[in-house]
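Title: Comparing notes on inverse folding

I've been comparing how different people in this forum approach sequence design from structure. To keep things fair, I'm posting one structure and asking everyone to reply with a full sequence. Here's the target:
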């Protein structure tokens, strides 16, 4: 499933209309019908449904929905914020069809009191005020209606995007509808994954409206949401005659005297995610702790680290920030240029002044910063990163030729060629020390087993989140999931994913 900016969506619509020949009214009819079908199962006879319509094509969708609601058992009332005489194009086409079907239109400006009463009675509000075409802050008459919708006790369902939200994820301070549910048309817009805007969407359902895939290719969209089907399609399948050497010989350089846990989490997660052989390099003082709990690992002393015979390396979790550690990070990034290298946590701290090393590698490195680490790498504030994640990630990955795993609620994986994949799994149970270390281990193991690095990174992030979802869905709350729980719950989730592979 693609993720688009406002301009990309406009280009996709225009290509479909001009070159594929599906007219605007057809797409609008498809959109309205898809929304109606999504609403129908919850509609109750006699329920008060208020459709609030703006001047553009989002309002046009509203007219289709209102027309279909006329023939249902609900009591529909349709309110227009714009002057009907100013409605043009596809929206005017569907306004006429609505009126010709026996529908009535009220104008908010003509009956403010009636509108207020209507919103008081409403059980469901359909928000078709503004869609992807909005520019700047909603005009005063729209802002007033948005604030009334937000004060109402009714369930609010936004069509395509909550009205007022800039679709490309730009930061904004103006009012926007706060929806309980958003029925997104055709494909998610960037704003859905950007924190401030994302909070307005409520539950999101994406409804196809019949746009062919060719239109996306023509519009050059290279951003997607990772789905379970993508993961099932790309997980590595073991050759029955394989041996441990076939599944990667990895080295994890992690841990410090005061942070033994980080090394343990990464190592155990890598083993649980299928790595063939794992060597761990930790300070001698904590070696007994790891060895006692993870007899499957071998050890390399910090003083004699060599990459001889290895196929991949991960460096950083709990490594510490001393000068000598920084020298080690530099050396490893330089010497591991022919194999995948995951750099996380303190590894990223030390990398900050040596980013140019990344460009000299033959095999791109994989960096997995959270927003704070990304901000430090870029010399920016966390707020700046959060307000423009997609652009900043793309710029960075292309410039330094890396796979960038920018972690967060919607972890974003960006390839060196600028392709981007948004992760759809995971929850706030992962907002706890140790979660990132687990991901580092999964990343290392997956990079050594997948053919494509992008698939490895995306599948690792998906699995990590899916495990947290599984725990919270069955046995845990958002509060009590530990890093060790995530590692121990990898097997059932992988078991189910591999169960689905049989049919691929
Ligand atoms: N054929 C298609 O393309 C399909 C499109 N579809 C649907 O269309 C939506 C996009 O439609 P759109 O581009 O007409 O924009 P839309 O979001 O309705 O608003 C723009 C209108 O509002 C106005 N306006 C702008 N800023 C404003 C503000 N701050 N405050 C107040 N008003 C403001 C602006 O007028 P202006 O002020 O520029 O004169 C313009 O009239 C999309 O989200 C989807 O729902 C689907 O049906 C599938 C087929
Ligand atoms: N609210 C959230 N929703 C979904 N995933 C989250 C959330 N908070 C954190 N995560 C995930 O948990 C992990 C945390 O990583 P990180 O911050 O590096 O943790 P640590 O360094 O403490 O191990 C990341 O994979 C991140 O995407
Ligand atoms: K809307």
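Reply #1:
Here's my take.
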């Amino acid at each position: 499933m693609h993720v688009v900016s406002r301009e990309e969506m406009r280009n996709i619509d225009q290509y479909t209309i001009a070159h594929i020949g599906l007219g605007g009214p057809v797409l609008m009819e498809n959109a309205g019908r898809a929304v109606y079908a999504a609403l129908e199962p919850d509609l109750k006879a006699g329920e008060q449904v208020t459709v609030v319509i703006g001047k553009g094509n989002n309002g046009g969708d509203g007219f289709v929905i209102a027309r279909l609601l006329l023939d249902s058992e609900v009591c529909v009332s349709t309110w227009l914020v714009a002057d009907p005489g100013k409605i043009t194009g596809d929206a005017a086409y569907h306004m006429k069809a609505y009126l010709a079907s026996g529908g009535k239109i009220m104008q908010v400006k003509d009956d403010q009191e009636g509108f207020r009463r209507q919103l008081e009675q409403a059980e469901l509000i359909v928000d078709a005020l503004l869609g992807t075409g909005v520019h700047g802050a909603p005009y005063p008459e729209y802002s007033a209606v948005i604030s009334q919708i937000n004060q109402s006790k009714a369930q609010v369902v936004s069509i395509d995007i909550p009205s007022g939200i800039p679709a490309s994820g730009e930061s904004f301070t103006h009012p926007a509808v706060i929806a309980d549910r958003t029925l997104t048309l055709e494909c998610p817009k960037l704003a859905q994954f950007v924190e401030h805007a994302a909070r307005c969407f409520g539950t999101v359902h994406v409804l196809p409206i019949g746009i062919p895939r060719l239109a996306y290719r023509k519009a050059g969209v290279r951003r997607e949401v990772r789905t379970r089907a993508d993961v099932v399609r790309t997980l590595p399948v073991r050759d029955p005659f394989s041996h441990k050497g076939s599944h990667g010989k990895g080295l994890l350089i992690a841990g410090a005297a005061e942070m033994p846990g980080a090394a343990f989490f990464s190592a155990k997660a890598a083993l649980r995610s299928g790595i063939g052989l794992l060597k761990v390099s930790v300070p001698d003082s904590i070696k007994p702790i790891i060895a006692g709990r993870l007899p499957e690992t071998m050890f390399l002393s910090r003083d004699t680290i060599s990459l001889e015979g290895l196929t991949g390396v991960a460096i950083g979790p709990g490594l510490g920030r001393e000068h000598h550690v920084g020298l080690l990070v530099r050396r490893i990034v330089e010497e591991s240029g022919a194999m995948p290298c995951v750099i996380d946590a303190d590894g990223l701290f030390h990398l900050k002044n040596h980013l140019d090393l990344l460009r000299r590698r033959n095999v791109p490195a994989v960096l997995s910063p959270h927003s704070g680490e990304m901000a430090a790498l870029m010399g920016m504030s966390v707020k700046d990163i959060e307000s423009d994640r997609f652009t900043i990630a793309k710029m960075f990955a292309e410039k330094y030729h890396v796979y960038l795993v920018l972690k967060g609620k919607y972890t974003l994986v960006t390839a060196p060629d600028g392709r981007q994949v948004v992760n759809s799994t995971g929850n706030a149970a992962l907002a706890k020390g140790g979660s990132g270390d687990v991901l580092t281990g999964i990343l290392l193991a997956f990079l050594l087993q997948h053919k494509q690095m992008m698939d490895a990174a995306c599948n690792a992030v998906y699995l990590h989140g899916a495990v947290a979802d599984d725990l919270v869905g069955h046995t845990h709350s958002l509060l009590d999931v530990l890093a060790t729980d995530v590692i121990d719950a990898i097997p059932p989730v992988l078991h189910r994913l591999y169960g689905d592979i049989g049919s691929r």
